[in-house]
C-alpha cells in the first residue's frame, strides 16, 4: 500500500456516513449490523489495497463495497424476504436500494444526530453514541473524551443500544417543539469532536485538523437546515472558525504546541477570522445567550493582534460571565491567564492554585509560565510536574526547552 495513512483517514471521514445510511435503511434497532458491514468494508479495503494498491477513487470504492455487502445481507435476511416478498414475486430482478449519494448521506447523518439525542437515551450515552457512530471515534477516543476507561464506555454504549431497541426509536427529524431540547446534546457532541482535534491527546499529537474540519462540517449541516439554523449553532460555528484561524501558528515544525504568547500572528488566517465574525453576527439574533456565544466572543478577542489592557479586560469579563452560566475547571484555569494579563501574575497564581487541578498538565504549565520571572525555581518545579503528565513527545520537548532555558 503506497499510503498507509489513507485507511485511518477514510475510516474517520467515511465510516460514520456509511453507518448512518445503513441505519436509516435497516432501522435504528439494527445499528450493530450497520456497524459490522461498515467495519467489514474497511477490513476488505485493507486486505485488497495491500495487494492491488489504492484505487483511483478510494471513497467510491468503499461505497461500492459497502453497497454490495449491504445488499448481500438484505438478500440473505428473512426479514427482508418477509417485507418485500410481493415485490420479488412481481419483478424479475430486485436490487435493494442502498443510496450513498451526497444528499442521502447528509439527510441520514442529520436525522441520525437527532435520533441519537432522543430523550429516552441518557445524555452521556447520547454523546458517546454520537462520537462512536457519527464521528467515527474509536472506543479509546470516546473513553478519552469522557476521561474514563474502555470497559465503562463499552457498557454505556451497550445499554444505549438496548434502549434504542426497546424504545423502537426511529431515525427521523424531531418536530419543531423537540428540536431545541435535542439540539443541545448535538452541539455538545460537535464541540467535543472539535476539541479532540484541537488538542488530540488520544492520537499522540497536538492538532488533528481533520477532526476539527469534520466538526465544522457537521455544524454547517445544522445551519443549512432551516429547522436547526439556531443562534447557538451559529455561535458554535463562529467559535470553531476563530480557533481554526490560528491553526498554522499553534504548532511548530515538529508538531509541538506553541503557546498563545509565542505564536507568529503573521500565520493567523484572517479569512477564517472574517467567517467567524460573520457567524457570530448571525448568532446575535434572538434573546438566547449560550456558552458558545461567550466562548466565541473570547475566541474573537484572541484573534486581535494588539496586546492591550482593554483586550484582556474584555476577555476576563467574558470568562467571568462564562463561569456563571457554564462553569468548568478548564474555563476557570483559562481565566487565570486573562487575569494575569489584565491585572497581575501574582493575582493569577493565587487564583490558579485554588483550582487544584493536579491531574492536568496545563495547570502546571500555566503555573510555570506565571512564575517565570517572579520565582524561577517554582516555575521549574511546575514545568517538571507538567512533564510527568504530558502525553505527546512534541509537548515534552516544548516544556523541557522551558526548563532548560530557566537553568541557563
What does this structure look like?
By secondary structure, the chain is mainly alpha-helical. It is built from 20 helices and no strands. It is globular, with a radius of gyration of 24 Å. One of its GO terms (molecular function) is DNA-binding transcription factor activity. It holds the Pfam family Sigma70_r2. This is Sigma-70 family RNA polymerase sigma factor. InterPro entries: DUF6596, RNA_pol_sigma-70_dom, RNA_pol_sigma70_r2, RNA_pol_sigma_r2, RNA_pol_sigma_r3/r4-like.
Question: What order do the helices and strands come in, and which of them pair?
Answer:
Blueprint (H helix, E strand, L loop, with lengths): L5 H21 L4 H22 L5 H19 L1 H13 L11 H15 L6 H12 L4 H8 L3 H18 L8 H23 L10 H16 L6 H14 L2 H4 L19 H14 L7 H12 L6 H17 L3 H14 L2 H11 L5 H11 L4 H12 L5 H15 L1
Helix pairs in contact: 1-2, 1-3, 1-5, 2-3, 5-6, 6-8, 6-9, 7-8, 9-10, 9-11, 10-11, 11-13, 11-14, 13-14, 14-15, 15-16, 16-17, 17-18, 18-19, 19-20
GO molecular function, one term: DNA-binding transcription factor activity
InterPro entries: DUF6596 (IPR046531), RNA_pol_sigma-70_dom (IPR014284), RNA_pol_sigma70_r2 (IPR007627), RNA_pol_sigma_r2 (IPR013325), RNA_pol_sigma_r3/r4-like (IPR013324)
Organism: Mucilaginibacter rubeus
